[in-house]
Amino acid sequence: MTLHQAPLHALHPALRLALAQCRTLVVEGPDGIGRGALIAELARQGFLVRRARGPLHHVDPTQPYRELLAAPGRLAVDGSLVHELVYGPLRRGRSRVTWIQALDFAEAVAERDGALLHVMGGTDDAEAAEGYERALRTLAQHVPVITLDLQGIGLPAHEPPGTTSAGDQERAQADRRPADEHPRDGPTRRGA
């Protein structure tokens, strides 16, 4: 039985809460976790699904996400800001997203009657799982965080082989670049 076929009272309590109370859901979780199935179900529940395209903006990584939040109605965002907070230090030694930027984004999500949807499902990467727990515990001071174990709600916990989500593919490309190859601020214009 898929989520859209299940009566509301049969859904996992955390998901039922999110669907009933949130106008905005930002889906976050470690690489390889099956976010795609959950995002498809959110679309069937009436959420407009959005994803920021391309690498994070080099000056203000939250800008594309704030623009996504301007959309009307119920919105599900395939996130990557928490991904950068977690995987940036693990893969490149630093994050391109500052905590101030992440907290500002969390507050913007909360102002839009939203929550971060922390997707779990058994990952082999213990460092990343711990990083997500730490990051989301901090962000929970500014925005509700709802944790879902995909196996507990009947969705696949991992993407099937060869079906990596577009968001995971874009993040993987950005993560493979060394820190010194990421775009920097260009020259400033004086007198303009």
Give the helix tally.
Answer: 7
Strand content: 5-15%
Radius of gyration: 17 Å
Shape: globular
User: What percent of the residues sit in helical stretches (DSSP H or I)?
Assistant: 25-40%
Q: Got a strand count?
A: 5
At the first level of CATH, the class is Alpha Beta
What would the CATH topology be? Rossmann fold
Structural category is alpha/beta
CATH architecture: 3-Layer(aba) Sandwich
Q: How do the strands of the widest beta sheet line up side by side? A: 2-3-1-4-5
The major sheet is characterized as: 5 strands, parallel
The parts where pLDDT drops under 50 for at least 5 residues are 1-9, 163-168, 174-192
Number of domains: 1
Calculate the terminal CA-CA distance, rounded to whole Å: 60 Å
pLDDT averaged residue by residue: 78
Order of helices and strands: HEHEHEHHEHEH
